[in-house]
Every structure is written in C-alpha cells, then in structure tokens.
Amino acid sequence: MLDYAxxxxxxxxxxxxxxxxxxxxxxxxxxxxxxxxxGMSASLDVSGSADNVIILAAGSEESIERSxxxxxxxxxxxxxxxxxxxxxxxxxxxxQIHVMLPARTPSxxxxxxxxxxxxxxxxxxxxxGARITDGRAPTSGxxxxxxxxxxxxxxxxxxxxxxxxxxxxIDGRPWTIVGRxxxxxxxxxxxxxxxxxxxxxxxxRDTVSCVIVTLExxxxxxxxxxxxxxxxxxxxLVAMTxxxxxxxxxxxxxxxxxxxxxxxxxxxxxGLFGGLNTMYAAFASRVRELGTLQSLGFRRSSIVFSLxxxxxxxxxxxxxxAAAVGLFALDGLAVRFSMGSFGLLVDGPVIGAGLFxxxxxxxxxxxxxxxxxxxxxxxxxxxxx
Amino acid sequence: MNRSxxxxxxxxxxxxxxxxxxxxxxxxxxxxxxxxxxxxxxxxPALPGGVALAAMPEExxxxxxxxxxxxxxxxxxxxxxxxxxxxxxSGDHAAMxxxxxxxxxxxxxxxxxxxxxxxxxxxxxxxxEVADKSGHRLHAxxxxxxxxxxxxxxxxxxTLTSLGGDSPAVVRATGIYVSGPGLPVGFxxxxxxxxxxxxxxxxxAGTLKKGDRVTVSGVIGGSKDPFVSGRALFTLxxxxxxxxxxxxxxxxxxxxxxxxxxxxxxxxxxxxxxxSDEKGNPLRAHLKGRRGIQExxxxxxTGTVAxxxxxxxxxxxxxMYVKP
Lengths: 385, 324
Description:
heterodimer, A: six-stranded mixed beta barrel, two-stranded antiparallel sheet, 13 helices, about 20% strand, B: alpha/beta, CATH 2.40.50, 3 domains, six-stranded mixed sheet, five-stranded mixed beta barrel, 5 helices
C-alpha cells in the first residue's frame, strides 16, 4: 500500500505541490508561534541568575523603574550582608538605575522607548553573561554608553548605526557609543548601558533603582538578604531573587503568549478545514478507483490506510520544508517588546511541535474524506463518474 | 524503478516515524519552563524508607501535648528533640528516642556532651521508628542521615502504636522533617512573662540601647511577609497600631502589612525579632507555624537589644511566649 500511496502522489504534481506548500505554511506558523513563546520565556528565564538578589524599594516589586533606593545602601549591604561573592577583593554589589527613556539615532526622527541601565563596572560581574564585545565600558563624566547586541532592534535601526564612535540621542541629550556588549539569550541585549553617575545627573536623581548582589551559594542564601531588609526597616527595602523578578515579568506577557498560540491554532484549524475540502475533492474524483480496489479484494481498512498515508507523506514533506525555513530564517530573529528584545528560539522541541502539527494535519485532514468516500457500496462506487 | 520505489519507501517510513516520535515528545518541552534547582545541596545520606519531609509539617504540637491527647492507632504530628544520649539511636535499626522540649534541657547540655542514657519520664519521651510495610523496623541507621544527629530538632508525623506507663510511646513514622540544630532548648515559654511591656511603649520611651534586656509584647506583622522563610526571624508590631482588618471599612488583602498606616508609624512601632547564633546570624529554622504562630499572632519576647539604628530595633530573642 505504501507503493500505491507514493505512486498516487505523483499522479497530480500540481496537487502535490499545493498540498506540500499548504501544509508547509500551516506548520511554519506553528513553528513561528512556538518559537516566539519559547524565545520570550527563555530570554526572561535566562536573564535572571539564581545567585543574584535584587534589593529594591518596598512596594516597587512589580516595576523596578519606580524604585528609589538610597545611594548609601550598597555600602551598607556590603558591610552587613555576609556571603556576598568577592573576587580579588571586589564585592559583587552592583547599584543600578533602570529607566525607560526615549532614544533615537540621527537617521530616525521618531524616538523609541528603550531601557537605559545606569551601571558601574561591578554590573559586568553580577551579570556574568554580559561581555563587552567591541570597544570598552563607559567612563564617568563623559556621557558614554555601551549598547547591547540587539539594541538595534529595540531602536529600529541597523547595527551599523550603533557602532562605537556613533551617537545616540537619549531624552534629548547626545550620548557617545564607546562599546557594544553581548548577553546571549537575555533581554539585556536590547538595552543601553550608561555610567551610573552620568545617568543620575541626566535624570536628576540621587537615588538608585536597585542594588543587585551575587551571593556565594555555599555561604549565603536569599533568606539572608531577606533577613537584612527586615532588620533595617528604616531603609524600606525588599529583596527578591533575580529569577523571581523575571518570572514575574514573564507572567505579564502570558496573555501575549496565549494570543500567539490561539492565532496559530485558529490558522491551523483553517488549514485543516482547507485540507479537508481539498481531500474531499481529491478522493471524490477517485471513488471509482477505490471501488475497483475493493472489488479486487483490498479491504477498506487498507485503502483508508493508504489514503491517509498519502496525506501524511505530503504533509510530512511540507513540515520538513517549514522546519528548514524555520531553522534558517526564523531562529534568532529579534523581536522587540517593552523590555527590549528577544530572539525567536527554533530548537528541537519547536521543530518537533511543527512536525507533530503537520502529522495531525495530514491525519485529520484525510481520514474523514477517506471514510466518506469508502462508505459508498461497491456497485455505486463503480458506477460513479 | 524498483530501487527508487524502495528508497522512497524507506524515506517515507523514516519521515513519518521520526516526525511522529519527535512530535510526540515535543509539546511538553514547548510548554515547559526552565526550572531552577531549588533544593538545597545535601551532603548527608537521605533518611531511609522515604520518610523525609520537604517542609515542616503544619500544626505540629509539642511531643508531650500530642501524647496527652492521642490514642493508639491515631496519627500524631509533633515536634521533639533528639537527646545527647548514647542510646538515642538504636544500633542498626531505624529508630531513635526523642524528647519533649520542656524535658530536653536535662538531656541536651550546652557543651553537647554525650551521656549514657537520658532519664526522662516516659510521658515526655517517644521512640520513633521507621518500618517497612509489614511493620518491621528497617535495617538502617538514622544517626547521620538526613541531618539527624544528637541535639537536632525534629518534626514527626506518624501513627501511635504504643502508649502508656513508664515506657516511652512508640510512633511509627510516616514523615520526618529535620530542622537541624533548631531553636534553643526551652525557647518557648509555657507561661506569660509578668514584666512584659508593649513594644510601642518601649520604643516610644526612646531609651533602648544595645545590650538592654527587654520583654516586649506585640503581634507579628509589619509587611506582607513578616516571616523570613528558613530563618528564625520576624517583625513585631506594638499595640499602638491596629491591623488594617480592625477597621470595618478596610479591604486590605493582607491586614498584617499595616498598609493603612504610614511607613513612619510602622517603623516607630515595630521591631525585628531574631533568634541568632553565637555570631549574631539568624538561626536557619522556620518560625512560622511553630506553636501555631502566624501573621497577627500575639507573642511576648524576652531577649537582648542587638541594635538600635535610625529607628530600626533588632532584638535577639532568648525566649518566646505565644498567647493561646
């Protein structure tokens, strides 16, 4: 029956191509939706380190940009919280400002909201995955910035406009790009980092948004940081792990992920019904042939199996085409969102989901028409036109 | 032609089978979130019989109180302590003797010296055993497993199999939670201290300084999470502030966070209570749930002022009375 199925596929090349392309489109959409969801989840998940604790103002847990922490807190933390990681005498304590500001390059007239992070050199310690790939870190007093590798997507410009030496206008003030950094798989790549003191001056504040500390796993736990905030209620602080912070943010984007899946599902259903329609027409034109096969002694179950197999083969081929397009064209494609940007993640499970969708399409798109065509009595089938 | 059909046949079967297998395995992975390991790294071997509990059981009574009201065959949940006695652990069998905390002082010397045996009355003692399905004790030591050793504080859930007389009660454990060194022996007072003052009044007097011995009363609260999970520390609020649910019109989701009060008022009427080790670090022990304490529980703390800094008062507690 497999021979029969394969030979039948070649009987109408046009129909075969259309079936393959149709299923490829549906599967590609499923891959895109799954890649979107996985990419967003993965970037928010990877963005938070299990060893990092964010100390921020009480009441600002859901929006770090609203948090105001006294500038003396990093020093107090370093002195009072045991178990902070140190290397060569440098404690992993990073005060930071997080602020969304309008930014644009000279080629764009319309600015875009970008996450600007005011940092000190210790930020490159606590964010272990962040590395300067071009140029250098910004120095104090010079209005210098480093841009993430995906900041171009956030700003809507090409990466050539964000090379070291170029300028970006942030909140009406020109800043000079002195370097680029990479933080693979995290939302940090869509951000712009400036010197903490310069950003304080530019935003007219004398507080920071948060202090991020890295704890040595064998010496301290999150509970120690939590205990510190409770022992100093005068500072009005609260502690949360970086992982929990990004998990909470991921929760905000859950409706978007649901919409992505619902959209993919609806179009998948549309593809399924379209396939059903096509298969009904295709099998209806072969009723006499199918009747002949039955009269020759082939069982209905075998014929159904062969018809379903035809559809599965066509859809599987379409799924492979879609998987190739997804892997080479969609994987890593940057998507901008409010926190910066993330890349679509087309990996094994995503490809698998697409292939599975293709198989479902082939199976459920062909079974009802096959059963319908074979429900006719043999004499009626043989007489059909 | 036959060769090409054969090749097409092989390719087709492979295509469908591989796509199906990968696809069947994928949906869970697509929806899966990266999980972070949150279990603490334990270097000690685990308790035998799978009885180790991941969390402290709620509503655990003190051993003496649990045995006073339980009948043979009932499930009991209690807190107890392993004495510093050489016979606390039974040789090669999974069994150990545990004491009620009020009696533990007799068998838990500060210098951790092991005595030959612990001569505490049977009503304050229990033999906890870990058995197989047929009721036979497992051939496994408990000492050194799952954090168990002399002096550890344990929480036990099990079936009371024997009770009465001078012999210790026997409990067949279905769950054991090891709290580690736990709270100091006798930390919870049976009677209310007579010289307690309200925390708000103590702070308002403005005379507290580091090293002062104090006995203060209040309720647990001051933030959405007044307890610190895994640490013997919580925040206490004095009587001058009423919890938000005392206001009939208030609709606070967490009345113990006192969100209806200003931060300055909360600071002026609060203290951080901790049970610390010799280095001043909070003990690694849960407090929430002990003796039924939770948010807004009225308690009286006796201890020493550890620090007074910009209105933040920290008291190192040496004993605690929980108002029933």
